[in-house]
Design a protein that fits this description.
This protein is of the alpha/beta class. The chain folds into three domains: 288 residues, Thiamin diphosphate (ThDP)-binding fold, Pyr/PP domains (Rossmann fold, 3-Layer(aba) Sandwich); 180 residues, Thiamin diphosphate (ThDP)-binding fold, Pyr/PP domains (Rossmann fold, 3-Layer(aba) Sandwich), CATH 3.40.50; 129 residues, Rossmann fold (3-Layer(aba) Sandwich). It is 39% helix and 14% strand. It contains 26 helices and 17 strands. The protein has a seven-stranded mixed beta sheet, with helices on both faces. It has a five-stranded parallel beta sheet with strand order 1-2-3-5-4, with helices on both faces. It has a five-stranded mixed beta sheet with strand order 12-14-13-16-17, with helices on both faces.
Amino acid sequence: MNMPVKKLPLLDGLLAPSDLRRLNETELDELAEEIRYRIRETVSRTGGHLASNLGVVELTMALHRVYDFKTDRLLWDVGHQAYVHKLLTGRAENFATNRQKGGISGFPDPNESEYDFAKVGHSSTAISTGVGVAEAFRRLGQKRKTVAVVGDGALTGGMCFEGLINAGELKSDLLVILNDNGNFIDEPVGALHTYLDRIRTGNFYKHVRERLSGILKKLPFGREVERVTEHVEQVAHKLVSPGYIFEDLGIRYFGPIDGHNRTEVEEMLHRLDDVHEPVLLHVLTRKGDGWGPSQEDPLTFHGPKGFDVDTGVFPPKGKVIGKTWSDVFADVMLELAEEDERLVTVTAAMPSGTALRVFAQQYPDRMYDVGICEQHSFAFVEGMAIAGLRPVLAHYSTFAQRGYDQLFQELVLQRNLGVIVALDRAGLVGEDGETHQGVYDISWSRCFPGIVIMAPKDAAELRALLHWAHQDRQQTEDETAAYIVRYPKEVVPDYTWGLTKPQAIEVGKAELVCKGTGRLMVWAYGAMFRLAWEAMEVLTEQEREQITMVNPRFAKPFDDHMLKELATDHDCVLTIEDHALAGGFGSIVLESASAQGLALSVDRLGVQDDLVEHASRLEQLEDHGLSVSHIVERMRLVLGVVEESADSQPIPFRRAD
């Protein structure tokens, strides 16, 4: 697991954050450079978040020099910028294992260190958690500081303001550090960014405040004039203070200050140490700071891998391995946009991740990035659809969960809006780990009426399903609230099982790919069909001939008719899905078999009822019995070719009596 790394004397000798306080200024500067090197070195090998971490080196060092976070509490919003924190809290020695199976997580994790307060990986939550922590300390009579570091991108999430409002009401002893680097993952959006940008780039507020203060001091003194002066000062403060939005919520505002000037940050933190009410400290940083390539191009170096650690140059690209599912989705959006001028696309701060940046280049006024606001995005497309547009909403599966209530209230209850919801990164996502797995979307969406849930087996089918859904939603008699299509984070398979066309798609109808002569039928959902087919290719010809292969296409509505028809000459069903078994596709097959009184044994392969830790997608598939070798073994077990073995089968198969 451990990889050879460059020796860094100061960082390698750092045993605890308290060691920072014994270093002089020169040593602290040298340590900052060592930290930047170690992060570049590791991310180049294992992938991860680079630019965001390089931008908080001095800020993180200052926090750990001023506070003792064994006693006080430090919360990182999102958590992808906590690498410096990890290096300073005893994890420098094994930092090379970042995001690797069995290694440390790319996000805060209390299982790793007492300095990590909570697991986190989604945006805009730290302030709310911090308010809860501060209130608990108050009720327990404990004099401890609570600090939440929140980026300007995360601040676009409504939950941040819910937390600030609550903090203002409770007068919480909470320090919110607004790490303002003027960047999201993609280009910043929204009016709040514009507001912060005005603060960031000018001295207007300081100049006007000083002039007003001088004028008011020269006015004649008297009771009436004094009242007027106080009133004018209050009004003027709101007009010119850069933080009046926060102060109106009951949050004291300080800043902005230079987040790369460690001494300035430390001095401000010491000044605020005796303030026991909610405070927002506005800190200006540069994403990718301290290393030219990442500072000049923070988007490319947001989550890079394989670059030269000194120059930032990426090696020449080898053989093109093919398009990703996201690429195919973007291609189809361009096709649909050309056919229908009412089609628009929407995402929440993920235009690059969902491949909609390509769409925006051709149709800049038809792609909407609403910021880190998944809840808002569902209501936003509701309004668009009611008013006559045809929106397509693209989310990562893990982030779409944040708009769950809005999926119901704003789409399902309207009955016939027909919004297409693309769930990228569905299934096992790899190294981002527990917080980012897209393995729950079938179970949380299929309970709603009026939802169509589908998953393609190949690129042609993704194209066909999207074209079909767009055509189907134009039927006025249809009462479909939303069409949900899920696909994983990987390259589309080379296989094309027939040239699927939109006219071949019928809602709720599965595809019979091959009919076997034996007792086993395999229903492999979505991207898992490829692995099931590869497993078939491993089998002998005699074994293959006994197996019926079904491409379900739809999880809802499910093809009860085909299941019943095949049950006449099959008595075993094997379902395969890269989704949680609880409430997933296999559960749907079980429910259908039970409701129809079918004499079928249903065996399910899927993600076990546990959190999925960081590892590669291939390793995660292996761990959950979803690799080709596991599928082969399960098929042979059902066929009776091999005997059941507790050692070889991590997911025991049970035959029906």
